[in-house]
Every structure is written in structure tokens, then in C-alpha cells.
Design a protein that fits this description.
Layout (H helix, E strand, L loop, with lengths): L7 E4 L19 E4 L6 E3 L4 E5 L2 E4 L4 E6 L2 H7 L1 E3 L4 E3 L8 E6 L5 E3 L4 E9 L28
Antiparallel strand pairs: 1-5, 2-11, 3-10, 4-9, 6-8, 6-11, 7-9
Length: 151
Amino acid sequence: MDGPVIIRLKRVGANADIPLPRKMTAHAAGFDVCAAVPTPVGLQPGERRLIPCGFAMALPEGYEAQMRPRSGLASKHGISMINTPGTIDSDYRGEVHVPLINLGQAPFTVERGMRIGQMIIQKLPDVRIEEVDELDDTARGTGGFGHTGHR
């Protein structure tokens, strides 16, 4: 079995007080990330904001980080992400941000250090695109959205 994948993190700015991404339980799939906002940020219903996380990282080539909403914020307050999951590529070296949106009915405040997203690290397969003249047939064929009839 291979050893663990090492993800190098660097704090950005004056954010020594902001926890670095961490798993909250032994078997958690994702690393919780925290808001590195200098002051509280209000989100009105329907409003979206790009929230800094206070760190940059170096992912190994062949990996991506997926940023996902936290289920507690979504179910309790309607706070989600506008592009979920968001992808962070292995060659990106800037500060990580989470694009939050308030889908709830009440204003919400993002506080400094609040857990606002979860980051999943994924290995990517080596994929190549090949143009062909014909595709193989399947039972579904060209049936699109809702075609299978299952609810």
C-alpha cells in the first residue's frame, strides 16, 4: 500500500489564528476549511460572496481538490456554494476561496474562523479525448434528461 498523499499548505496574510484544513473525525472524507475574513461578512438571501480561507496549497500533479458545502450550514441556514463542487487544480498557487451563496430566507453572517466548506482530495485518472465517427449503441441511446422515467 502506498503512503499518504502529502498536500503542502502555506498561510496567506495575517491568518495565523485561522485553523488549517482538518478532518473533524477519524473517518471524515473531507477537510473542513475556515473563513479568513478580517471582519464579519453578511450574506443577504440570494447574495453570494467569495470568502477567503487564509491558505494556498500545492497539490501533487494528477490530483485535484474539490470544495463542497458543509451539510450543516446548508440544512440549517441554506448556505451553499454557487459552483459545487468547485475544483482547485494542481497548478493553482493562489489563496483558496469558497464562493458562498445564501439560499435561505434569512440573512447569515460569516464569522472569522467559521467552518464554511469541506475539501476533498481526489486522484485524477489519465484521460485522453479521442474523436471517432461512430459511437457504440446502448439501450438508452440518445434519451436525455428524465428519459429513464425513474423518480
